[in-house]
What we know:
By secondary structure, this protein is α+β, with helices and mostly antiparallel strands. It has three domains: 196 residues, Sandwich (Jelly Rolls); 81 residues; 80 residues, no CATH class. 23% of the residues lie in helices and 34% in strands. The protein contains five helices and 21 strands. A hairpin with a 5-residue loop joins strand 10 and strand 11. It is globular.
Amino acid sequence: MRFIIYFLFIILVTFEIKAQKISSSDYIIETIFEDFSNYKSLYFDYQTNKENYITIDNGDLFMFRKNKQTSYIILAKHNPLKNFILKTELRIGPSNNKKSSIGIVLKTQNNRQGGIIFEINKSGEYKISHLNSSGKNRTSGWKKSSIINEVDKLNAIEVRSENNTYDIYINTKFLTTLKSNSNEEGINGIFINSDTKAKISYFNINTKKKNDNNTYIDKLNKKIDNLQKENTQLKTKIKNYSNKDKVKKSNKSITENKQIEEKKTPLASTKPTKNMGNVPDSNFIIKNIMIQKEFESKGIRTSDLIIRTSKVQIKDNEAEKIFTVQIGVYMTEKEKGLVKDFWSIPSKLGTYIYYSGKFNTSNEAVLHLNDLVLKGYKNAFITTQNK
């Protein structure tokens, strides 16, 4: 009996092996893209209480664990994942606490049971902990690595998870491989130790193109793509009318089509607009609301949607601003030809924020956003910049 218990314990323990197996070439679907550039995160909740202070600070997620006795885990809002690539960038702030550490949580449950914690400290060391069914840690102890930057310096972490094997990279260099039989799938997040201050620059997760976790979402994305194509066709038809009489006839025809659609799917009602140039945008927003309703009926969070209608609610009243479409934040500078009319701004963290197009009105930017989404940039959104 003792032998059986010991054997089961050995199977469950997370262990390190010096190998590198998992390729990143198949992981091309952006499941989470969070660079903390907006005032509110789509994936992490903020906190201001006696235990924690978690908020956006100048493009970073600032975390301060005030409790001096216990650590804390904050989970990202996403469906449980099995195979994925997680990329993040962490920095531990200076403090008198010698035990300050920050890290990531891999494939745990909502009740924080099971999964793995990978953390780094101020001295350039790393540690791997395994959360068991009681929520307590089994740890491998701290290990020194020359590729880990010490206190108040950025550390880029990449974890490739496939079939309960984890390849870990620090600052683009391979560190170690883990094997665990804990959870088949789970939720990822951020770990912060007691009495620790830290900043997170970004938190991104990619999954495979054919991923069981996103099968239903992929189907809805196809519906969105079809609606966008229909929206583009409506836009082309409107441009073909050159006089007021034809514009009025077009307006009547589009209104009748909308009424037919409302009878088929009575999810939203609209009023005819006086400005024909706004018809495609209104049609596009209404149809995305329909898709959001379908997500909610299936129990899927609207934050999982690739197209977010709130991004197009921008007023054309900023004379000193231009409208542009942000397509992503990259660690390295990209060659020309990434997308049409692209340009970039270097950030203070050494990353490059890439945009496409410069427009005087939000309508022009929305049309350009539609084109970019159809080309595969599903996390692009509209923003403003100074002229």
